[in-house]
Design brief:
single chain, alpha/beta, seven-stranded mixed β-sheet, four-stranded antiparallel β-sheet, 4 helices, 11 strands, about 10% helix, about 25% strand
Amino acid sequence: MSALEWFAHKPLGGGIFWIQERFYESGNRANIWLVRGSQRDVVIDAGLGLRSLPDYLRAAGLLEGAGPRPLLAVATHVHFDHSGGLRHFEEVAVHSAEAAALLRGDNYEAVTWLSDREVARPPRPGWRARQFRVPPVRPSRLLQDGDVISLGDRQLTVMHMPGHSRGSICLHDREHKILFSGDVVYDGSMIDWLPYSRESVE
């Protein structure tokens, strides 16, 4: 299966695209965002990584425009549905609290629990969910609360929001009043019982 088959996207205007893994049918499926800027493009969360997200972005024409720009992948946290695809990117950013887990491919902290029934179409013949692991990735940028990721004409401010995981972050576009919340805010019951989750923050 090609990356063009695996992913789908919806343009939301203002250089923002919502991307999904079409054949990963699970409540755990992360929202993936492409945010385009005048000097840099940012992907927020990278999905499972069963197919290359950068390949999809290029093949779907989502990176075309005023010439090539650096592409940074930011993980809102290292849980498997958000971080599995980071291995396909040259530039990767994550909060410093989870950098070591990403670097060693810690599938306990990534809470990797993928089942065959959640993958409607296997990415290749013979693929089984039990084979899936989040591979080690060396982050090129460590994030802290208050850091600003500049896209040129758009600024994303890092908000450290531990709870769901110890390195969970949101990215806030103050000018456009947009919050990319990862798993800090979502519909449904709060998942705060995972490894390194905390119900309260001191």
